[in-house]
Structure formats: C-alpha cells, structure tokens
Design a protein that fits this description.
Largest sheet: 6 strands, parallel
Number of helices: 10
Distance between the termini: 50 Å
Number of strands: 11
Shape: globular
Radius of gyration: 17 Å
Strand order of the largest sheet: 2-3-4-5-8-9
Order of helices and strands: HEEHEHHEHEEEHEHEHEHEH
Length: about 250
C-alpha cells in the first residue's frame, strides 16, 4: 500500500499547469510497455481502447471486473502510476470502484457524467459532484489518495446552447472540484480561447485531450493545460500505420 500511496502522490504532483504531464492512453501490457520504453513515467488506461482490446464496445460494454483484470495485467507489467477511465462507474458502488482499482494497482481514475446504462443521459451537475464526493470519501478511507479526474461530456455531446456551454461546463466542474476532484476534464477539442478560459477560470489542473500526431505539447502547455491524454486516438494512429505496413503484403 505504501508503494501505491507514493505512486498516487507522484501522479498528482505531475499535474503542473503550463508544464503538462503527458499520459499516453494504453490498453494492455504491450502498449503500456511501449509507452514506458519511450520514456513516459505515468499512463492512463482508456475505456475505448481497452474495450476494443477484448473485442467489446465502448460505453460500458465491458464489466468492471473485466476492466480490473486488464488493469492488473498492466500494473504487473510496468512500474509507473496508472490512472484508469472508469466511464460512469459501471453501475458499481463508489467504495467498490475505489477498492477494485487499488487492488488492481491503479492510483487514479477518470469519472464521466454520461450514464451509459441509463440511455446515455447526462448526470445533473450536483448529481455528478455527489458521485465524485463519494469516490473521494471512499479513497480517503484507504491509505491511497486516488487521483480523481472529473470529466464532463457537455462539449462532446453538445448539450444545450453553444452560447453558454463553456459557462455551464465551468459551473459543473467547479462543483466537482468542491466535492473532492483533483483534476478537471472538459473533454473535447477546443479553440485556444476556450482552453484559456477553462484553465484560467477553473480552480484545479485541467486535462485536455490531445491528438498524438496533429497536436503539440508546447502549444497545449502555453494554454495552461496540466495534463494531456489521447483517448482512443493513439490506438487509432497505430492501427492506421499498421494498415499501411500490412497493405504492402496483400
């Protein structure tokens, strides 16, 4: 447990606005080893890539037990802090989610506000904050300060009027921050202006999604971003390049 506590502390300390931690999004022991061999010192496990890796769909097409089985394979293979996308929580109790992640060797999580098991509805702002608060309480009952990355899908789902979407996202994420989140994730590809508003008006480090080929670390750093992950895009880029290699052998 002491080692996991240390990894959790390290993961949290890596979140520096203007000097973002890059967390390559991996899905199995092979991809995790690939990223660590390339010099990355922390990783995140994405729901879409990990579901793809076992032939199941994203949006909670796998169970929490299937996810933690995969996480344990990854943490057995690499000795770096691991954060895990747990989607909306797979319908599990926050205490079980925290205990399952820690048992599997993870020290961080993403929690989103889209409830896939209920038709993809968006949790109400306070409802999402309450879920974040329950995860924090469950983490506080252990010796590991699990790094909670609270995500909102307001942008990717284009919920409500565009004219005040940034304001609503900020309000929603401020509630999650007050409930105990460590990092805030307004997922989506934003203009520089929107990124600057998010990083200046939100009270915690901000996670941005980055494209591993078409975005640059320095550009996101200049916008005040503290964490960059790739979602399913790293896996997709590797698939495209694999197709190029294999095409010559058809």
């Amino acid at each position: 447990m002491t080692d996991l506590s240390s990894k959790a502390k390290t993961l949290l300390e890596l979140h520096q606005p203007g000097n973002p931690v890059i967390l390559p999004t991996v899905w199995d022991a092979w991809s995790a080893n690939l990223a660590v061999s390339a010099g990355f010192t922390a990783l995140t496990v994405g729901s879409h890539p990990v579901s793809d890796s076992i032939g199941k769909p994203d949006n909670e097409g796998i169970t929490f037990d299937e996810l933690t089985t995969r996480i344990k394979q990854i943490t057995d293979a690499v000795d770096v802090p691991i954060s895990v996308d747990i989607e909306a929580g797979y319908g599990e109790d926050p205490k079980r989610l925290i205990e399952g992640l820690i048992t599997a060797g993870a020290v961080g999580l993403n929690i989103e506000d889209t409830v896939h098991s209920e038709g993809g509805r968006l949790r109400e702002a306070q409802e999402h904050a309450d879920f974040v608060g329950a995860l924090r309480a469950a983490s506080d009952a252990t010796d590991v300060h699990v790094v909670i990355n609270a995500r909102t899908d307001l942008f990717v789902k284009q919920v409500g009027d565009e004219s005040d979407r940034v304001e609503r996202a900020i309000e929603r994420l401020k509630l999650a921050a007050a409930a105990g989140a460590d990092v805030l994730y307004p997922v989506g590809f934003h203009t520089d202006e929107v990124h600057k508003r998010l990083t200046s008006e939100l009270p915690l480090p901000v996670n941005a999604i980055g494209h591993p080929v078409s975005n640059e670390k320095s550009a996101l750093a200049a916008l005040g971003i503290a964490r960059v992950s790739f979602g399913p895009l790293f896996q997709l880029v590797l698939a495209e390049r694999a197709n190029d290699v294999l095409a010559a052998w058809k």
